[in-house]
Amino acid sequence: MNQTQHLSKKFLKSLLLIGGIFLCLSNLIGCAEQGRYMETHEISHLKVVFLDDQSLQEMWETKTGQPGTQFQPWMQGNLASVKTIRGFYDFSTETLYCPKWNYEVCGHELHHAALGHFHPNH
Predict the structure, then answer these.
(1) Span 6-24, pLDDT tens digits
(2) Which class for 82: exposed (0-12), middle (13-18), buried (19 or more C-beta within 10 A)?
(3) In sequence order, which ranges of 1-122 are alpha helices (DSSP H)?
């Protein structure tokens, strides 16, 4: 193979590599563009109540008549779990109850305030 052929092959490989990178990047950008959205939700009478865990469970019991912590046997096997209320949104009073610095729980409940019920029925 002479030097010209070697340079031509090297140029072709470089060109294919650059073309491949371009295609990959354009696909990534195209996918990112398709997933974009903007939703606006106005919550006019939202009340937020921050509570410690024990007070939160007591408030849940007061509002629902159900215990804030429940033992739940699993459907299969001998395993069981304990379900503890970590936060909730009261649709009737438009009040969000959650621990003050627990952004995950408060954010989840805020989604209920904006979007309504979205958990599957058990």
Answers:
(1) 556 665 566 555 666 666 5
(2) exposed
(3) 3-34, 53-64, 103-115
